[in-house]
Design brief:
alpha/beta; 8 strands; globular
Length: 286
């Protein structure tokens, strides 16, 4: 399929394409406006774009300030709103607070790409090929990973970038790990309040397994050789900090070498505010 994302790169994304989220168009417009404001707050500001992949349309924000620099920082958003109650699925996964975008807006990398997840900011279940499975049981499905992979390749193909530094927040962490395990141009991966092993995560809470999703241990051989760092919050009750050491031990890596624990951080607070200092802690080679 011929990619037409470079046209979208140069054109504003029409508000009409963003209709139909949970709570109606007004809520979607509010969430989109909040994301746009976060992107504008970056220094330099991030520009908005849209990627057309084989299955999904993905919203992204980017800046490309150093065309000769081969490094590209990529931030992947969390799961967003998966359920409105414990059993009722949301009709739109667009996050009200896009933490990964807030991190990207505070990052100083000259070349940077933020990627929302499939069906976020495009109308939820009204988006192309969107179904609530893609933000619940299939949130890390092969086709979700493929869409992010395609978007990254489209961006790199247009702007360049041979050394990718991946950052994943919450559920975006697991997708960053999967991408790092299958791409040959990833230099390191950093996770923030991250789901690192979804089987261990759902088991911890007694939740339904994510039966339609890939898991990070599929690419364990690659990950155990990759520079990485994992930030966890000791007050995080959504992705408990105790899950990260168990994941690293399953990889055969010493947890204390790769994990930075923040005693006062929970799942959302206060990663963005702390990011300028946290970003100085580089990933560690095994």
């Amino acid at each position: 399929m011929k990619c037409r994302w470079m046209v979208a790169l140069l054109l504003p994304i029409l508000g009409g394409l963003l209709a139909g989220c949970a709570g109606g168009p007004a809520l979607l417009q509010s969430n989109a406006a909040r994301a746009d404001a976060a992107a504008r707050s970056a220094n330099p500001p991030l520009a908005k774009t849209r990627f057309e992949t084989r299955q999904f349309d993905l919203i992204g924000y980017y800046r490309q300030s150093a065309p000769n620099d081969p490094r590209l920082a990529i931030f992947i958003e969390g799961d967003g709103v998966a359920y409105v109650t414990r059993t009722q699925r949301a009709v739109d996964p667009t996050p009200e607070k896009p933490v990964a975008l807030d991190l990207a807006a505070r990052d100083t990398a000259p070349n940077l790409l933020y990627l929302a997840r499939p069906c976020q900011y495009v109308g939820g279940r009204n988006g192309r090929n969107c179904d609530s499975a893609y933000w619940t049981t299939h949130r890390y499905a092969p086709e979700v990973v493929a869409a992010l992979d395609e978007a990254i390749s489209q961006y790199v193909g247009h702007f360049g970038g041979k050394r990718l530094v991946l950052y994943g927040y919450s559920g975006g962490a697991l997708l960053a790990l999967l991408l790092a395990g299958q791409r040959g141009d990833v230099e390191s991966v950093t996770t923030i309040a991250g789901v690192l092993d979804h089987q261990a995560w759902t088991s911890h809470f007694g939740d339904t397994p994510l039966y339609g999703s890939r898991n990070s241990l599929e690419v364990a051989e690659r990950l155990r050789r990759l520079p990485q760092r994992h930030f966890t919050g000791l007050r995080d009750d959504q992705v408990p900090a105790a899950l990260a050491p168990a994941f690293l031990r399953r990889l055969g890596l010493p947890p204390e070498k790769f994990i930075t624990q923040l005693p006062r951080a929970d799942h959302e607070c206060c990663w963005a505010e702390l990011w300028p200092q946290l970003a100085l802690q580089s990933a560690i080679a095994p």
